[in-house]
Amino acid sequence: MIVDFHTHNFPDAIAARAIAGMVEKLRRRFVPFGDGTLACQLADAHANGIDRCVMCPIATKPSQAGVILRTALEIRDGERGEDAARTIIPLASVHPADPEYKSHLKAIADARIPGIKLHPYYQGFRLDDPSVFPFFAALRDLGLCAIVHCGYDHGFRDVPMSCGPAEIASLLAAVPGLGPRFIAAHLGGREGNPPGMTDRLLDTGCFIDTACLEFLQDDPDAVRVMETWPADRIVFGTDYPWNRQRRLVEWVKAHRPAAAEQEAIFHLNAERLLGL
Fold it and tell me: Which residues contact 267 (CB under 8 A, 6 or more apart)?
């Protein structure tokens, strides 16, 4: 069983435009391994041995929380097809600047959606900004998990670091109890930070995911994190369609060869976080 905790797709009507816009924002340095549609994601998951995919939308505006939740419920409840309902575990998203964030987070919890995706660069906030601490406290109190883009983002080259290990540690110290519900994507925000910085998160209780761009997979510090981080606090994630899922599977297996650790990373930790 393999659960990919970090994937993306877009509504069919805007998928091509969304992917093209992101490729431009990334200055054509990266190209996706798929067209961004749900149908393509399902086909690629099955072809690459992925059993379940956690869908991670991002509310780039406060007004988007409702439509994102409705889409999540459509997928979960079978309105987008039986294959999608079996394979996709949809998350929701709420913008931290949303004045109605408490009611929107409660609606997500009431709907039994297990968590949300956040992206500090696309949503324009810092993890160490005290103004967002009440947002994260509300999320914690509702029992929701949050998978958060952490570290450098190649589409925001001129934006100061807002979500690296130092900023994550500040947030988790300010919001006690959030750590076990917080997934720090991209190896805990390793990219764009000095080697060894991810270790600042060891005492926070947070999880990290394995979404690591292919050109970073031979990076010595990325390999070190993959090999030494506690296996019960890693979830497998690829950032599909921006990574080849099969290659990430093999990368994890190469650096965590123990069967029990692979079980934890590939599905047991995800199942615990998602309440499966």
Answer: 1, 2, 3, 51, 52, 236
